[in-house]
Structure formats: C-alpha cells, structure tokens
Amino acid sequence: MIPYSRQSISEDDIQAVVEVLKSDFLTQGPVVPQFEQAVADYCRASHAVAVNSATSALHLACLALDVKPGDIVWTSPITFVASANCALYCGASVDFVDIDPDTYNLSVERLTEKLAEAECQGRLPKVVIPVHFGGLSCDMVAIRELSRRYGFKIIEDASHAIGGRYRDEPIGNCRYSDITVFSFHPVKIITTGEGGIAVTNDIELARRMALLRSHGITRDANQMTHEPDGPWYYQQIELGFNYRMTDLQAALGLSQLKRLDAFVERRNQLADLYRKRLIDLPVNWQVQPDDCRSSLHLFVIRLQNSRIGKSHLEVFRLLRNADIGINIHYIPVHLQPYYKNKGFKLGDYPEAEKYYAEAISLPLYPDLTEWHLCEVAKVLGASLN
Ligand SMILES: *Cc1c(COP(=O)(O)O)cnc(C)c1O
C-alpha cells in the first residue's frame, strides 16, 4: 500500500536518538532546550516551548491567552478536531468560520461578516485559530487587521506548515499572531514520533506555557510566594500538566530539522508533478496565492462531481482497492457527533460540506518516488472514467 503520508528516517536520525539513549538524560535533559532554540531560530521567533503533541501545544496556547468558561474561540471546520477541542478543554465554547473554496483555508470574507454580526450580538471571539491547511498560510495580514479592530488574539494552527513561507518569511515568526503551533506527528513535515511546539515573541506567554507544561511547578525563586525552604524546593503555583517532550524526541526533531528545507522542496516538486499529470482530469486542487509557499503537507484534489460518472465514495474505493492509501482531510468538525450534540448541524458551513463531498488526499511524502506518483495519477485517471 502506498500511504498518503509517512516519515522519512535517516541513519543520522537513528544515531541522534541512540546518542541520547546512551546519555544521562532521557527526558528533562539538554536536548529539549537545544531543539526549542533551533525551531525558534528557524522560524525567527523569540521563544519556543516543546511539548508532547500539537494538541497539548494548542491547549497551552489557549490557557496562556487566558481562554476560560464564557469565552468563545473560532476556527475552521476543515481541520483536525484538535484545533477546536483545545478551546473546550479550557471550558470555552467553539464556533466555526466557513472555508474559502479555493484555498480551503478559513475564509476572510466569512470571518469579516461573522465578526460584524458577533459584535452586534455581543458575542465576539476571544481567540481565532486560523489553520494553515496543507501547509498553505492563511491570509494573515487580513486576519491581523481584523484582530486589531475586534480585539481578538490569534493562535496559528500551523500543524501542517513548518517550513512553509508567507510574504517571504517563515511561517512561525508570529509577526501576525500571538502564538504559532507546529505538530511533529509522523505524517507531518518533520517528526519527533509524537510531539509539538508553540512559538511566540511574547516572553510572558512563553513562560506561562513552559510553567503549565510541567504541572505548574516552578523552581524560580522570583515566582515563589516566599523564600525557598532549601535547594530542593519547588512550588506549584498553577494547575498544570505533564505535557513534556522527551530528549529522545527532541534529538530526533533536531536531526530532522536539518532536512526540513529538503523535505519541503521535494514535496513541492512532487506536487508540481501531480499538477502536470492531473491537468486533463475533472479535478481541482488548492490554489496557491503568490505570497505563499506551502510546505505541501497534503495534496488534496476536489472531484468535479458533475463531470464524473461515479460517486466520491466509489472513486475512493477504487483507489483504495488499487492499494493506494488515499485519505480524506477532513470530516468537517461541526458534523462530528460530539459537536452535533452541541447544536451544530448539516447546512451550517456549506463550503466546508461541499468540500467534504469532493476531497481526496493523494499520497505525498519525501520518499514517494516519481514512478509511484505516476501510478497514482494513472489509477486515478482510470477511476474517474
Ligand atoms: C495533526 C494536527 C493536530 C494535532 O497534532 P498532534 O501533534 O497529533 O497532537 C492539530 N491540528 C491540525 C490541523 C493537525 O493536522
């Protein structure tokens, strides 16, 4: 089976992890801070807080921005559930902004309209979480402008997007947001097995996330309520979690980071080849605005259903039966039973629902060969006949 995505692990990656295994610290050692510094440098952000998943990073980001019961957080319905769940963890409520049919990102027009309505109703969001779908940046200049006007904070869910660029700068520099989150799950651009990171230019937000990552415990005398009882002393000053990344994971991440640019280049080359091979088929793909360079986590096609004699499901089955591990990203979050129980329903976000009826993610990862890619294109062509 050709998967839709998979990690690329080199001998150097393996060696890096083995080094840590032979060292004194498997966790809470020196490699996590090295990895944090390397990611911050790469993104040109001031601070990075590494954690055990992007889901944890999103949770900490919401907590650091003081999301709490009574608050509202908005995100895209076409994302992994974690982009919305993070707000619920904090007791806040979630609402969605429909997508743009060409970029599959949250639509700035819909956001603008929804903010105007929310202002009238006194229901403005505290935080908006734009998701850089497939590694393609949202229109951050426009979202930043709206945030100034309406006073919301911004967490970029860049789980797909490390190595991507926006306006000639790395995604994650937080020029247009308060915090940016990346995922290092094996299907994403670089991996730490499981893992995630939050980057920010605000030292207070970084401190808060670092504190909450490890039980809300501090060893910094300046943060304590009184002088330490002795050298062993620590204080728990908030209710935190164990969201720590291990040194084993950080070593893998540091090693993978060296190949990040090559991974993104290769993904872009393969996507170009798909576009060439699929040009005559009744399918669309994500439009790439000129001021963006996607990290190409996903290559999604949308079937032009009216020009195809088969259903979306039939096409999906034909490809899977041909051992091609295509997938669908994503089932609209508002249609998940958990969210339906909160009152969301079919019809709420028509563009997201139309997208869901057409989308298929084709295999794309650095070690995918051109030969295999052409096979995928061939089988797809035959399936649409
Ligand atoms: C993968 C993903 C996450 C969650 O990442 P984990 O590291 O698996 O917790 C969150 N948001 C989006 C958009 C994702 O694709």
Folded structure, characterized:
The protein has helices at 11-21, 31-43, 54-64, 82-89, 108-121, 140-150, 203-213, 247-257, 260-277, 312-321, 337-340, 350-356, 370-383; strands at residues 47-51, 72-75, 93-96, 127-129, 153-157, 165-166, 169-170, 179-183, 196-200, 217-218, 235-236, 283-285, 292-293, 299-303, 359-362. With 385 residues, the chain is α/β, with parallel strands linked by helices. Strand 2 (72-75), helix 4 (82-89) and strand 3 (93-96) form a beta-alpha-beta unit. Helix 9 (260-277) packs parallel to helix 13 (370-383). The structure holds pyridoxal-5'-phosphate.
Features:
385 residues; seven-stranded mixed β-sheet; 13 helices; binds pyridoxal-5'-phosphate
Bound molecules: pyridoxal-5'-phosphate
Gross morphology: globular
Largest sheet descriptor:
7 strands, mixed
Question: How far apart are the termini?
Answer: 23 Å
Tally the helices: what do you get?
Answer: 13
- Extract low-pLDDT stretches: none
Q: What is the helix fraction of residues, given as a range?
A: 25-40%
How many beta-strand segments? 15
Strand order of the largest sheet: 1-9-8-5-4-2-3
Average pLDDT, to the nearest integer?
A: 98
**Radius of gyration from CA coordinates:** 21 Å
- How big a fraction of the residues is strand? 5-15%
* Structural class category: alpha/beta
Order of helices and strands: HHEHEHEHEHEEEEEHEEHHEEEHHHEH
